[in-house]
Amino acid sequence: GTNDFDVSPSAGPGPSYFLTTSVAPKLANSGFNGNSSVLFDGDSDSLATSSPIVTGTGDFAFYSVFSYAGGGAQEHALGGNYGLANDDGLEIYIYNGKLTLYSGGYVYDTSVVGPISQATVHLVEVERVSGVVNVRIDNVLYANENFASSIDGLSNWTLATSVDTTSGNTSPATLNIAEQLIYSQALSAPDK
């Protein structure tokens, strides 16, 4: 599959969309087997791309390796194109220890399966294929349900803070992303 966006600090060639705006994230060396990561520890820290990437009713795939800490019932936005100007966009975030997907009227959270613990490295996978979303956390399938809603593309994909708001990662909360891959298509098994 073609990689539409890769936020890995060691990203290789091939992304179709590039980072266009950076607001104060830091390069960090911690917690990821000695590899670099991007640390978001301020109220409006973010990285924005040059495209909304995930739009319409088509397939998509999202993968993120991260850890977070602090903030109690604060939101930790992994990524999305949701915002005030794009309220039918998609946002994938942790809130009060639960993974949540939000797009217009669609909300999915993992509250029934337990929280995502702080200060632990996690892998989140969200894939939509033919209108069905699969959500995996640390290689465990938590959701396989209908999500055929159209995702608006009025705002570009942004990491760590909603596109045009400062909600997303409120200090003293921290979000540390080691890898994030976003594809505007489904991936075959060998491409995963």
Written description of the protein model:
Helices cover about 0% and strands about 45% of the residues. By secondary structure, the protein is mostly beta strands. Strands 1, 3, 4, 6, 11, 12, 13 and 15 form an eight-stranded antiparallel beta sheet that branches. A seven-stranded antiparallel beta sheet has the order 2-5-14-7-8-9-10, with no helix packed on it. A hairpin with a 2-residue loop joins strand 8 (about 90-95) and strand 9 (about 100-105). The radius of gyration is 15 Å and the shape is globular. The protein starts with a strand and ends in a 9-residue tail after the last strand.
Topology of this protein?
Elements: E1 5-6, E2 19-23, E3 26-29, E4 36-40, E5 46-49, E6 60-69, E7 75-80, E8 91-95, E9 98-103, E10 106-109, E11 122-129, E12 132-137, E13 140-146, E14 158-160, E15 174-183
Antiparallel strand pairs: 1-15, 2-5, 3-4, 4-15, 5-14, 6-11, 6-15, 7-8, 7-14, 8-9, 9-10, 11-12, 12-13
